[in-house]
Amino acid sequence: SQKIEQNSEALNIQEGKTATLTCNYTNYSPAYLQWYRQDPGRGPVFLLLIRENEKEKRKERLKVTFDTTLKQSLFHITASQPADSATYLCALRPPYGQNFVFGPGTRLSVLP
Amino acid sequence: DVKVTQSSRYLVKRTGEKVFLECVQDMDHENMFWYRQDPGLGLRLIYFSYDVKMKEKGDIPEGYSVSREKKERFSLILESASTNQTSMYLCASSPTGKNSNQPQHFGDGTRLSIL
Fold first, then answer.
1. Count of Cβ atoms closer than 10 Å to residue B59 Cβ
2. Which of B45, B103, B106 minimises the CB distance to A99?
3. What is the mean pLDDT of residues B39-46?
4. How far apart are alpha carbons A55 and B29 in whole angstroms?
5. How far is B103 from chain A (nearest CA, A)?
């Protein structure tokens, strides 16, 4: 079955820097990959979707890359702010699968 | 804006009780999902439904059942609660289609404790 790893459980960075979160997967390459944000005590909120034939996707200060050779997606937040502090989840859908499979998440803390 | 409402934020039940978790969405979405979220394990899919009265098992269905009598409502049932079912339960919905790539919209979760 698909195994998803997200870099260290927690990541601390200084305000204004670029945060980079990783999502690594094993086995088959997903057809689609999503990123979600989850605040404490709340449900995840969708941020971005990237397809396997797309190398990069941007939305305001967010950028997602997808490297099927490395079996990895990177999620970048540029000019990070304390309000970006949250847990970020990646979710993959296999080519033949019906549903997305979620990673364990990375808790990001942006320090003022 | 899509709203997914879960009936309780916190719930405490006893071992052996039958527990009902309710979820309602207001956007006429076909797809509905139940997950549990545990530290270090991420979200794990329990059951999902692509239509009224239709249900399919997810990755961890043992000890659970579901009901979808109306399109907007998806209920999760713990037939006989056990302590290993203590967890955060999240409901989600998404627009049409099996194999949909549409984003899922989540409720804020029910933190269930089984004593």
1. 12
2. B45
3. 90
4. 30
5. 6
**What letters, b where the CB count within 10 A reaches 16 and e where it falls short, cover B4-34?**
bebeeeebebeeeeebebbbbbeeebbbbbb
Q: Who's near B56: CB < 8 A, 6+ residues apart?
A: B47, B48, B49, B50
Contacts of A86 (CB under 8 A, 6+ apart): A37, A38, A39, A107, A108
Residue of A nearest to B105 (CA): A45
Report pLDDT digits (tens) over B69-102: 999 999 999 999 999 999 999 999 998 766 667 8
Cα angle for residues B65, A25, A41 (degrees, 5° grid): 50
Contact B101, B2 (CB under 8 A): no
Euclidean distance between CA atoms A23 and A74, whole angstroms: 6
The residue of B29, B101, B102, B105 whose CB has the most chain A CBs within 10 angstroms, and thus the best one to mutate to test that interface, is B101
What are the residues facing A73 on neighbouring strands? A23, A66
By residue count, chain A amounts to 112
CA distance A33 to A105: 14
